[in-house]
Design a protein that fits this description.
alpha/beta; 8% strand
């Protein structure tokens, strides 16, 4: 592919130029090799940012065609929008029910149904869920929204909607997947019902559910959606997280695209994701800004590859998903998987829908963001183990002791697999690579003969190129290119840039703190993964928290004390830089130490409710 060839060629040439410009021929070859590999890894990301920007500036967006269901969705395209939820506190129940209610009100259609699929185990919270569902049923009808409760929270979110697919597509009330003996202690009991409420001991006097509903674990009239005599009635399953809202006709528009004959090659449709709580405070506004500035990368990737990673919130063709991912004895997702979306997009071709946007809540402060990042990192590391590391060792072992292959699971789609794995590796390694590159740049100053005595102009040019690729291009030209790509006026893009300079500075300084925090999170996540793989611990739905559960009631002084190691590192860096010879170190690390010192103040400032946004979304 031309795009891959150009990106690779520019990366190789840039890495070669880096060696020529920075190192003497009599330098430490190991040091040269390591730093060049790191530079090439980072350079490829920068090069692709430039290329995606060019693609967006010179082409029009790839928009999938749609059917027009002016009189409603036909019965042959009947769909179900499901919220998969596991609540551990009353607030999360309210958030999920509020999102479901808004999505229902915005997507009314005779053949669009809704479901709340619960893995909640606290009886009091289950009671709140059932009460809320009864209220929605009184408004919309008992057959319009259905409550499902799983007997056992097996497989996290993906296990929840796979169980629902078994019920919708096969009419089965018991597990038919992951029942083989090879799954050991993760094997599912084929005699245990998928859904049930008998294990939930409701408070005394509760009369919310009838006897049959207790046994079935289903509250509502399911005649319009359940499989009858082997004939499924629901064709598409739309999957949602607890905090995601499907705005006006968004779910219906997705079904219209699924129904179009030209889109049958795509088994998953992934709408764009926006920020629902952008007005909460300055931090959520920064997160909204972050999604805007990187939209050009998503648009460019979709335009170039005509496939896209799955974000976990979108629509499935149930028959295609079942055929590929859930064949008995050849299931694709490992039972211990905590993250599922990128693996699913490896095996099922996924389409991006930039013209349809869902809204989800973003973390309201830096430490809540780190908690989410830890969960993502654990999930991705488990995925990397199953999809990259374990297969690599199996191939090495096969070279030593050749055996006949017994692999029965489907093979991934080459382009989709390559894209998904590349994104996963970059998400996990880019921060660590950048951090290690900076450290080696400092340490190399003390190795005689390693660095070529640099011209200050060369060093400034190098760091300017890196900063332009990492910061300036995506936050300026990239944002403009995304608007141009989607056919919006150039004047609108420029007006956004002029009003977002504060967000640009703050988001960059907060991002630089992850040079410490992100690597700490990776180490913690690696420990959790090793405990799962080596010690045999069962993966949990939620993981341990990082930093603070909330910044409410925490003074700035306390915050500085708690963040003392990072602040101390920031204060020590200028001293180290003073005694460092290569001028590049000063240019690279000056914004880093500034970020570390100002970090706690920025974290407190951005989380304050007083600094909420009076405007709507940044990109509107």
């Amino acid at each position: 592919m031309l795009f891959e060839w150009v990106a690779t060629t520019l990366t190789v040439l840039g890495a070669f130029g880096y060696v020529i410009a920075r190192f003497t021929w009599y330098g430490n070859l190991w040091w040269v090799g390591i730093t060049t590999i790191l530079f090439a890894f980072l350079l490829q990301i920068i090069v692709e940012s430039y290329l995606y920007t060019i693609v967006c500036l010179t082409t029009k967006a790839h928009i999938l065609p749609s059917e027009v269901f002016s009189t409603g969705i036909p019965s042959e395209h009947r769909s179900l929008l499901v919220y998969c939820v596991r609540s551990e506190e009353e607030r999360s129940v309210k958030v999920a029910m509020n999102a479901l209610a808004q999505s229902m009100a915005a997507n009314q259609d005779p053949n669009m149904y809704f479901a709340y699929l619960s893995d909640t185990e606290d009886p009091n919270l289950v009671q709140l869920e059932v009460i809320a569902i009864r209220t929605l049923q009184d408004i919309h009808g008992r057959n319009r929204v259905i409550y499902f409760h799983r007997r056992k929270p097996w497989g996290k979110k993906w296990g929840a909607y796979q169980d629902l697919m078994v019920w919708l597509h096969k009419g089965a009330e018991h597990p038919i997947t992951y029942t083989a003996e090879k799954y050991g202690r993760f094997r599912r009991d084929p005699t245990q019902r998928l859904f049930g409420l008998e294990t939930i001991h409701f408070p005394v006097g509760t009369r919310l559910v009838k006897a049959k509903e207790l046994t079935d674990g289903i509250v509502g009239d399911v005649r319009a959606i359940r499989c009858e005599d082997g004939n499924p009635q629901v064709k598409y399953l739309l999957v949602s997280d607890a905090d995601v809202v499907w705005p006006e006709r968004a779910a219906i528009k997705v079904v219209e695209k699924l129904a179009h004959a030209d889109n049958t090659a795509y088994a998953i449709l992934q709408p764009a994701i926006g920020v629902r709580n952008a007005k909460t405070n300055l931090y959520t506004r920064l997160r909204d800004w972050g999604r805007c500035i990187w939209e050009f990368s998503a648009l460019g990737m979709w335009k170039v590859y005509e496939t896209f990673p799955f974000y976990g919130k979108g629509a499935f063709r149930i028959a295609d998903y079942f055929r590929t991912m859930m064949q008995e004895g050849a299931e694709v997702l490992p039972p211990t998987a905590l993250s599922h979306d990128l693996i699913e997009s490896k095996y099922l071709r996924t389409a991006y829908l930039p013209d349809i946007k869902l809204l989800e809540d973003e973390p309201t402060d830096y430490f809540e963001d780190l908690q989410r990042l830890l969960r993502w990192t654990i999930g991705d590391l488990i995925c990397l183990w199953y999809e990259a590391i374990a297969p690599f060792f199996r191939r090495i072992y096969a070279l030593v002791r050749p055996t006949q292959s017994t692999k029965t699971t489907p093979r991934p789609i080459p382009v989709s697999a390559q894209l998904a794995m590349r994104l996963m590796w970059r998400f996990q390694l880019s921060t660590a690579a950048f951090t290690l590159f900076l450290i080696l740049t400092l340490l190399g100053a003390y190795l005689p003969g390693t660095y070529l005595p640099g011209e200050i102009s060369v060093e400034i040019a190098l760091v300017s190129f890196v900063l332009a690729g990492v910061v300036l291009v995506p936050r300026s030209l990239g944002l403009v290119s995304a608007h141009v790509h989607m056919g919006q006026p150039l004047r609108h893009s420029l007006s956004i840039l002029t009003t977002a300079l504060v967000e640009l500075v703050l988001s960059t300084l907060i991002f630089l703190q992850q040079l410490v925090d992100r690597n700490v999170i990776t180490i913690q996540a690696l420990g959790t993964v090793l405990s799962i793989k080596l010690a045999g611990k069962v993966p949990r739905w939620r993981t341990s928290k990082v930093g603070f559960a909330s910044l409410e009631g925490i003074s700035l002084r306390m915050l500085y004390w708690k963040r003392a190691p990072v602040v101390a590192l920031g204060m020590a860096l200028p001293v180290v830089l003073y005694f460092t010879q290569p001028p590049a170190a000063v240019w690279y690390l000056s914004p880093v130490w500034l970020s570390f010192v100002l970090g706690p103040a920025l974290e407190k400032l951005t989380a304050s409710q007083r600094h909420g946004s009076r405007k709507g979304h940044v990109c509107e």
